[in-house]
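Researcher: Good morning. I'm working through a list of sequences from a screen, and I'd like to move beyond sequence-only analysis. For each chain I'm collecting a predicted structure so we can compare shapes side by side. This is the next one on the list. No need for commentary yet; just the structure.
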Amino acid sequence: MDVFIFLLFIHQLFYCTNAQFSTITDILENTNKRLPNQNTSNPLGVRLGFYLESIGNFRAEEMSFDVDMYAYMSWTDWRLRHNFPDYVLVNDDNIRQQMWLPDLYFANAIKSKAHDVTVPNFNMFIANDGTVAYSCRFTMQISCNLELQNYPMDVQTCGIQILSYAYIAKQVNVSWFDTSPIRFNPSIGLPEFNITAVTPSYCNGTYRYAVMSNRYKVDVFSCLLGDIHLARSIGYNLVQSFIPTGLIVMISWVSFWIDRRAVPARVTLSFTTLVSLTTLGNGLRFGLPQVSYAKAIDYWYGACMLFVFMALLEFAIINSYMRKAEKYGEMAKKFLQSRDDDEELFDRAVQQRKKPFVVYATDDGAAIFYNADKQKELERQKIAEYQQRRRRMSQYRLSVCENAYATMSKSFSRTALYIDKACRYGFPLIFVLFNLFYWWFYLCWCKSDPFCSAMF
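Model: Good morning. Structure tokens for this chain:
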């Protein structure tokens, strides 16, 4: 019994194969590569659909990406009608080349190729009423005009534009399938993007054709557009760009806690953070196209650079105040030393009164010894002169100037300390407020506002 069933199956298979081959032979006798309804006024309707197998290799600098896709087309060719009860499968490339196929092309494709491993990747099913279901596989490099104003919080729409190359819409009218014309593989994983939606639409297909030296025609060609909506994943840029630059800004605040008199340490820290941020900023722009507008990450980098530069400027102000404090402190010390010298002179004069004799030098160089009474009288005169000079100078010049310069020195030093203390808390507070505004603007408000998306 099993042998009988097996033989029956082989017979049916052989019969069907011969029947399909006979049907295909009959079809080829009636078909050619001309437009099926060339003699009618109604356009030939061609339905189109895609299945995106994979998307990847985004090149931001070139503004392009690669897509591997299956194209599905359907149209009716009355010359392909047959009496076979089921679909007729055509997978021979020689037979396909003898039949009319839609002359569709991808207008924004930079490179494209049809797969032929291990055989040409296509199939064609022909119904008995002449309806053709044609499928083939392509890999293309598609150009995509990236709008990078909100980079790296941007949302991109990359379209695949399809047109008929030779036939105007009055001859061949290409349209999308009614149900799910564009589908994609749910397992597609992109390193930078997430596919949010894939939508079919139509575009303006008005072009010149039949262009000659002094005349041309203008008409509408069927133009279809498959939009791939992509949202960039911020994780990579958060780890590689935002966090490192933010940490560099925070490191620059350490200078506010270093002693204001430690000039070498503060200079080294300020310039090191500035150079590190500049180097990192150059790396942020690597691999991005040279656009004429500022991107979101440019505003972030510019703000971080401003914070680091302001920290360096704060040190310059502090250093200026400290140099003034040292200057006035040195002047106060000089006046203090002058007063001490006068007091030392007074002490010497007092000590001289205790001596019984004093040596007085005459004009001719002779030494004369005076007795104690004459010595006391002389010392009283010197002391009186000294006291008068000290009252006049010390009271109005030495003490006043010394106190004034000492006060100014302390004032500049305290002002520098107050500026340091204010910056210790002011810089982090302003940076936190900037972060709140920055992330709210680009993640919340700007994405929901069309005007913002267009301007920024």
